[in-house]
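In these records, each integer encodes one residue's backbone shape. Here is one protein:

___
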Amino acid sequence: MQIDLSGKTALVTGSTQGIGRAIATALADAGTRVAVNGRSADTVASVIDSLRAENAARDLIAAPGDVTNEAGTDAVLTAVGDIDILVNNLGIFGATPALDITDDEWRRYFDVNVLAAVRLIRATLPGMKERGWGRVLNIASDSAVVIPAEMIHYGMSKTALLAVSRGFAKDAAGTGVTVNSVLAGPTHTGGVEDFVYELVDKALPWDEAQREFMRLHRPQSLLQRLIEPEEIANMVAYLSSPLASATTGAAVRVDGGYIDSIVP
């Protein structure tokens, strides 16, 4: 399959590292003009320089700003202009015993992982509908379905994101705009490495620590390894393309078989 997104503009939130950076790379390699987003303008500029050094043909623009607040969101949207593909990738996670999660933490996880996405959808979906084409992708998690005991506030936020995706897909019905969520499984990023070492012996080499983490905390994974960010990005690139025109309102799994279900 040939994915050609030439002439389209995408915003990928939280795209200076990890899954977001991999998604920005995949979309740019498919011909998309990609807005790279992060809170620090210097970091965004450095990432763009690095991505262009790998492939000078990549069409990248800087869109620094904190999308968890209205002022930052406005700055990002001004930098990008009309958006054809919105990828709400920004998210936070961390392990906290269930009874120790404070009111402030519950609110913070909702604000960052859910409300920031909703705010951007409200801002961009009307233009997509008017133009008769668009893609909204919300990066969710296996934790939306299999709530981890050690971070139920994170699971809650990702479950909410599934509802957000389905609801806005109904709002966009019949317009040529699709709205989907991607259920990403345990993925190998720098942040996840830190998380793994919160739960297993810090003295273990990374390969052993990863195996121990999967054995103890994610034993239902059929892949039996962490997913690479590029594997998530491949699915996002497909769902962003005209090839996925009949997929909307869906929660599409890239979870390594982690979710024990035969229905997505």
